[in-house]
Amino acid sequence: MTTNRTLHLNKPKRDEMTIDTRAGLPVAARNIRPQKRFAYIVYPKSWEYVNGSGFLPVLRRVVAMPGANGVSRNGSISRAVSTAIEKGATYIDPKDPRLGEYMDYVQYYDTDTGGKWFVDFCQKATILPGGEILWNADDAVEEMKVFRRHLVEHGIVPPMVNEVFLWLLNREQRTHDNLLARSAQNPHLRKRADSLEKRIESMRAEWEKVNAEKVSAAKSGAGRRPKRKTANVLEG
Amino acid sequence: MADEITFSGLTTTGGRVASVLSALMLEKLHDPTDLRAVMTEVPWQALGSDTMSVTLDAAPGAFTAATSETSHGSAANNAAYTTGKFDLQVARYVRAYQVSDLFGITGGPVDLAAVVDTLTAGVGLTMTDLLTALFNSVSTSVGATTVDLSVDTVYDAAFSLNSAGVVAGPGAPLTMVLHATQINDFRQSLRSESGAIQFVSAETLATKGPGYQGTWNNIDIWQSDSCPTINAGADRSGCMFGKGGFAYTMAPVSALQGHIPASNILVDAGSVIVEASRDADNGLTKALATMYPAVAEVEDSRCCEIVSDA
Predict the structure, then answer these.
(1) In terms of domains, do B112 and B170 share one?
(2) What is the CATH number of the domain that holds B196?
(3) How many domains does chain B have?
(4) Do A35 and B144 count as a contact with CB atoms less than 8 A apart?
(5) Among A137, B39, B64, B282, which is disulfide-ready with B233 (CB 3.0 to 4.6 Å)?
């Protein structure tokens, strides 16, 4: 309807959705497959020496992907976990009260397709305007070290035994010797060998310092091992 | 001059359009790696369960010498016949696209057939996801967190498997599946090696399927963007394994033919079925693909996880 009066419009309304709004991690446009739900396990030999943090358990994951290693159609991981336990793994129950602040460590972000992207509890995502996702890997790794230390200190993961330490040490020593042997042809390997040598020294010092009592206990714990009997090699 | 027939004029008045769709259609960037070729296929048997247990027969053992001519000592005592098993439990995986009638009648290079092709191409990706999800639960691991993958780490994995009795030979090479970042680091490390350590790229070999990169020291190398991040996103989890390390099954969904009206079936490829679901009220047609796969680790000692910086 027209009017013969002059109108002054001086208060434009704000359009808060000028382009679009973003909710959740963008996976649709870039065809990214989100991480699935998981639970941590630790195998007896899954240990590593971390400079400044000592010996820490290496966390492994049982992924709740239906159809994978016996994970059921509704995502139950009980069969996959029991298979891992049969292999000697320790299951880190997310509901274990000893986890304290880390209880329910299985966490997720929503995705823009309505799904879930499961992450380690300390992972933070930065979404760039183009949709690229950047993760705070460096900070998260430091937080994970604290978590891994917590698992040992609260008895959730059994402590590393001396034999595993020796196995780790032997592995590093072999790598060091190998690097050293090849460093004549490849001089750049010398640097890695030197660095590894320092690491091996740190590993020894750490084990002696922190686990001195455990070392002696492990050495005196021969009763647990199968007893060796003396064989008469001549008579059989 | 006046009344020239120009493109801009015709665009305004309807004699030309601003752009047309090319008949040529290119694929959007994606990783098509299909890792079914590196797993053992176990035929599905429909015998009343969603889980199929597969038996691993006992390993043979060397004989024990008798202690004398007339006495066996303990040599003839019963030896343990230790079998093993692994379970393949199938689960339903679906993917659907829904197109409108207007989509159909306006034509163009992307039609319902193209949509259905895209659906069936997802089968291999699903199997790859199922396999790579298992890498981080393998009990043996090489590499170190936040350290780039090197030739030494790959040797470590191969030596570890060899020590475990996974002997690679010309007919049964080892398989290594890595993320692109890990492949890059491996190639970078190869550059600084000396001597006759050569990477035979896939171009010089008969192709083994999407994702195959080449072979090195009797190790078939595959690349997949499905190798998961681990350790708070700091690392990638790849894996090296011998023949028979992992197995898969795909329940034949053809058995569903009796459940689905024949006219609704768009594709029946045995392990995947695509059916049409019509919503006449809203003028929509949904193409829905269904498959029932399962993947399992056959024997843990045949596999070795490879951890390196992401």
Answers:
(1) no
(2) 3.30.2320
(3) 2
(4) no
(5) A137
Task: Report yes or no on B176 lying in a domain.
Answer: yes
B191 touches chain A (CB under 8 A): no
ipTM value, please give it: 0.83
Q: Closest residue of B to A141, CA-based? A: B232
Task: State the Cα–Cα distance between residues A22 and A112, nearest whole angstrom.
Answer: 7
Q: In a mutagenesis test of the B interface, which of A53, A61, A105, A235 is the best target, namely the one with the most B β-carbons within 10 Å?
A: A61
Answer whether A33 touches B (CB < 8 Å).
yes
Name the residue among B132, B134, B137, B148 with its Cα closest to residue B310. Answer: B148
Tell me the residue type at B80: A
Q: Which domain holds residue B159?
A: 138-243+299-309
Q: Which residues of A touch B69 (CB under 8 A)?
A: none
Structure tokens belonging to residue B258: 């009796």
pLDDT, tens digit (0-9, with 9 covering 90-100), for A90-143: 999 999 999 999 999 999 999 988 889 999 999 999 988 888 888 898 899 999
pLDDT in tens, B169-210: 777 889 999 999 999 999 998 887 776 666 777 665 556 778
- Cα–Cα distances in Å, from A2 out to A6, B50, B221? 11, 72, 75
